[in-house]
Specification:
This protein is α/β, with parallel strands linked by helices. The protein has 2 domains: about 5-45 and about 50-60 and about 380-460, no CATH class; about 65-375, no CATH class. It is built from 15 helices and 14 strands. The strands form 4 sheets. Strands 6-3-2-10-1-9 form a 6-stranded parallel beta sheet, sandwiched between helices. Strands 4-5-7-8 form a 4-stranded mixed beta sheet. Helix 1 (about 5-40) runs antiparallel to helix 13, helix 4 packs parallel to helix 5 and helix 6 packs across helix 7 (about 185-190). The longest helix has about 35 residues, at about 5-40. It is elongated.
């Protein structure tokens, strides 16, 4: 009769041991799986939608809180505010080009993109009054969209004149593999058969009008598929015919990195992200794209292009500005000593799902420049240290589960542990999504173990 309890105890211990071993095995597998997912190559493309309460993006903002206001950047939006008719004078002495005549003609007489380029050239002329530190255009000039060469020449003349006063950065567009496959399937099939072919992380430059000099730089506008990550550089081909050839692809800076170089070519953040050689000369960073917190669109200094031009308009713009139903004076100090980003907004097409809502691309670019200049950059935890961190987290979580029979205490302890690790990593300049994934997965295991203990207490 004395052997029955002993046999019962041995059976119970074996059952509990099996559950613990299986839970630990699942936890270790979860550590490796989440680490591998986070260290997958950075991909270009459109952000994934949806940031619900169980998504890492939702809790990411709670850990890496961005400041309430921007200190280093401002945004000028070019959109539907462009007047149907506006005055424009060519650079020629006493002669009016086709561009001049077209700009003064009625609506629809000139391609919309050509009119917008003339509009942008006027904006560039007034920008020096606002004393920006640098001007960054999240804009490029596709020759197919405006065949009037005099219009494009006018824009680049304005850019050249502006670059003599402040550094200028112009955006370079690219095709990413996802877009090529969707929009150009025949081209995609052709380049995929080459050896080596087009990799998922590689881009192809779009054929646009390009002119650069010492004070007028270029940067890739392609963003990371994860809007929270700052794109540093991308491997690019100069054209589809260059795929598979020697010397291609080559890495180019993104728009945000080019903007930082324009402000200070030896900025400390450039060395921190691997964008400088040991001797201080520039190099395209090959580091993993780091995380950053995003400032809400409403908290960025944003003004419309027409408001800047009409704040102190030249004589020929008086009638256009006085005829506006809405008038808004822009204080010149709002952009003083800041990096001013110019981009399209309100025209559709360039909207992106982010943790701060759906925003135009120029808002993301402004956030990336702000984060870099502010040093608010969080690197990924290296692979094996991240594995070690995950295993230590699991060990602590299982230790709590084994020592406590209170389900509430287990849940609170796991959440507090996850938050503290995330904050400590943030202070160290790192961020990982591993802790959140472990919290969700491990809490499920911890709750299961505690439920087992609870049921055991009730029925024995």
């Amino acid at each position: 009769m004395s052997e029955a309890p002993l046999i019962s105890n041995l059976t119970e211990k074996k059952t509990e041991k099996r559950i613990t071993v299986r839970a630990a095995f699942i936890g270790v597998c979860l550590v490796f799986l989440l680490t591998i997912i986070e260290h997958m190559p950075s991909l270009p493309g459109t952000e994934q939608e949806g940031h619900h309460i169980l998504s890492p993006a939702f809790w990411y903002d709670r850990v890496t809180r961005a400041p309430d206001h921007a200190k280093y950047v401002g945004v000028i939006a070019v959109g539907r505010d462009m007047p149907a008719n506006f005055p424009f004078e060519s650079n020629g002495a006493g002669k009016k080009s086709a561009a001049t005549k077209s700009a003064k003609a009625g609506p629809g007489s000139l391609e919309e993109s050509c009119k917008r380029r003339l509009y942008i050239s006027k904006l560039l002329e007034v920008l020096p009054r606002f004393k920006p530190k640098a001007v960054v255009l999240d804009i490029w000039f596709d020759p197919k969209l405006c065949e009037d060469q005099s219009v494009t020449a006018t824009v680049f003349s304005a850019l050249s004149n502006l670059s003599e006063k402040v550094p200028v950065v112009i955006g370079l567009p690219t095709y990413n593999p996802t877009d090529i496959q969707a929009d150009m399937p025949a081209v995609f099939a052709q380049v995929s058969n080459r050896k080596p072919g087009l990799a998922p992380t590689e881009l192809v430059l779009q054929p646009v009008t390009r002119r650069s000099n010492e004070r007028m730089k270029e940067g890739l506008v392609e963003r990371n598929i994860d809007a929270r990550k700052i794109p540093l550089s991308w491997p690019v081909y100069d054209g589809f015919d260059q795929i598979g050839r020697n010397g291609q692809p080559h890495r180019l800076d993104t728009l945000s990195i080019a903007a930082v170089r324009a402000v200070d070519p030896h900025h400390s953040i450039l060395r921190r992200i691997g964008a400088l050689h040991d001797d201080g000369s520039p190099q395209a960073s090959e580091a993993d794209h780091p995380y950053t917190g995003l400032i809400k669109e409403s908290n960025l200094p944003i003004e419309r292009a027409i408001d800047l031009m009409c704040s102190n308009p030249p004589d020929e713009w008086t009638n256009v500005c006085n005829g506006r139903s809405e008038r808004h004076y822009v204080d010149p100090r709002i952009f003083a000593d800041k990096v001013v980003l110019i981009g399209f907004a309100g025209l559709g097409g360039d909207l992106h799902e982010t943790p701060i809502g759906k925003v135009p691309g120029v808002i993301l670019q402004a956030n990336y420049v702000e984060s870099l200049l502010d040093g608010r950059v969080f690197k990924l935890v290296p692979f094996w240290p991240q594995i070690l961190l995950g295993l230590l987290w699991l060990f602590s979580a299982f230790l709590i589960a084994r020592k406590s029979r209170s389900l509430e205490l287990v849940v609170v302890a796991a959440i507090v542990l996850t938050y503290l690790i995330s904050v400590l990593l943030r202070w160290s300049g790192y961020y990982t999504e591993l802790t959140f994934g472990l919290a969700v997965g491990s809490l499920t295991l911890l709750i299961s173990l505690n439920m087992y203990i609870y049921i055991e207490d009730v029925f024995t």
